[in-house]
């Protein structure tokens, strides 16, 4: 994993379009943090870029890296009850082997009013075509994560990109039944239409020259009415009740 994250750090430095995209996402996340002055932890910090924008952030991942603050499994976090104000996750939730267990653990460590902020893949008709062709991680829609029996061993780089969609969109009634007394969904947005796929992400070649980035950003805003058909991402903010 260290080799992958080191490569991602190099790509981050070289790819201007990625920095522009993520900087917008980081600003959005920061504006939605519970601003009570308490601790904010990022899970799955990877190459650690978010901390450049939020220096007081506690960066973490499941494997230790010398540029991160902590290493632990998100299903069993080393924090006392009601000790965190925010948990931030960018492309992490869909890697969890038991997302329901994680949500219960997050409820334990968050203060009342604390927030989970996630940015995750979203399977719109357009994005599914692109993801399936260019992205190695699968979308598996058949699993019901609210009816999991037991735990399974799983590499943290394995994933099901459909997990956020299944829990917060398709099975939202089950989420509300299970967690309605614990969390409220403050924001549930579909976003990121053409600029993100044009960037190629961390794994694929950039599809547009840098001088076209402003044009694509404007086009992105114009496409907002079609977000259910085009979105590559969903943005979720959960507040602890």
Short characterization:
The protein has 241 residues and is α/β, with parallel strands linked by helices. Helix content is 35%, strand content 20%.
Number of domains: 1
**Spans of at least 5 consecutive residues with low confidence:** none
CATH class: Alpha Beta
Rg value: 17 Å
What characterizes the major β-sheet? 7 strands, mixed
Determine the CATH topology: Rossmann fold
Helix proportion: 25-40%
Number of helices: 9
Q: How far do the termini sit from each other? A: 36 Å
Number of strands: 7
- The proportion of residues in beta strands is 15-25%
User: What's the CATH architecture?
Assistant: 3-Layer(aba) Sandwich
Shape by Cα distribution: globular
Please identify which CATH superfamily we are dealing with. Answer: Vaccinia Virus protein VP39
Order of helices and strands: HHEEEEHEHHHEHHHE
- Determine the structural class based on helices, strands and strand pairing: alpha/beta
Mean of residue pLDDT? 92
- Strand order, sheet with most strands: 3-2-1-4-5-7-6
